[in-house]
Amino acid sequence: MDRLGTTQGHALPAHPGAPDGHGRPDRGARPDGGARGTTAVVFDLDGVLVDSFAVMRQAFTTAYAETVGDGEPPFEEYERHLGRYFPDIMEIMGLPLEMEEPFVRESYRLAHLVPVFDGVPQMLRELRAHGIGLAVATGKSGPRARSLLEQLGLLDLFTVVIGSDEVDRPKPAPDIVLKALAVLGSGPARTVMVGDAVTDLNSARGAGVTAVAALWGETDEPTLLAENPDIVLRAPAELLDACFGRARTP
Q1: I need a labelling partner for 129 at 20 to 30 A (CA). Which of 75, 88, 91, 144 fits?
Q2: Which keywords does this chain's UniProt record carry (predicted)?
Q3: Is 0.85 surpassed by the pTM of this model?
């Protein structure tokens, strides 16, 4: 495994797609078949694959207390910027960059408390069984993301796991998605990006891939829907229906 977490494997051709006249996925598509023809799926991590918000809140609270001092940690504001790289969020919020060290330390310490969303492992395994290439493109650092996925027993399901510290411009720029496409060998018209934040949708669209909104976590649903995602999913299993245009197998 290299520094980006690349493992053996490659995406096989999937079912024929239904692109528009320009060879792109139909941007009006929904889970009744809008992503058919997909050969690769790029996932955000927090709020999409894992329910990390309780641990994130605890780590943020500790980091704020150690670095800033007394007062109520502005976690709700922090949540509005999720998907971005932690140092970028600190800069946006006007908080000291020194918060990163205790935040990362506590995130590692509490990682065993992070659960995987129900249905995610089954969904990932079925996608892999159908030759779909899988990647993670996260606001976390690459080492922290790979450590968490390995602890959860999911790392081997992904061809590549890329953190925001491993691209020149993190989300909402398209760089992290484009890097995943290059490793997976999948074109934008055959790739979807699944995220729970506006930054994910912007990154997906900048890369020319289908932008999929995942609503099963603690996302700000009205804000996410206002961005007009190409596909809206309310459960992990719905991604199978979107990609294959059929009922999922047991």
Answers
A1: 144
A2: Hydrolase
A3: no
